[in-house]
Amino acid sequence: MILFWGQGKKVKLNDPIRTSENPNKKFKVYVKNPKGNVVKVNFGDPNMEIKKDDPARRKSFRARHKCDTNPGPRWKARYWSCKFW
CA 64 → CA 1, 48, 52, distances in Å? Predict the structure, then answer.
């Protein structure tokens, strides 16, 4: 789904992409919040490598962030981090 965000910019919803303009986060995704507004969610540490191939690391990450019990709402960074893992 493509909607307008900010000042008439067309963006694709629920599609995580690499961040180029914000050096503090690795990924961004545009989603709708409960009010119906399109918001940008930044997540991920650009200085860390995602080692999700290691089952022990994957299990630890998912437990630490409560990914299986409550990943949180779609407009929060925790939801998208859990989805990547």
Answer: 32, 17, 14
Distance (Å, whole) CA 62 – CA 83: 10
pTM greater than 0.70 (yes/no): yes
pLDDT above 70 (res 4): no
Check residue 18 and report its DSSP letter: E
User: Per residue in 42-62, pLDDT tens?
Assistant: 998 888 887 878 999 889 988
Residue 79, Ramachandran bin (φ over 0: left; ψ between -120 and 50: alpha; else beta):
alpha
Structural contact between residues 67 and 82, judged by C-beta atoms closer than 8 angstroms = yes
Burial 51-79 (b: 16+ CB within 10 A, else e): eeeeeeeeeebbeebebeeebeebbebbb
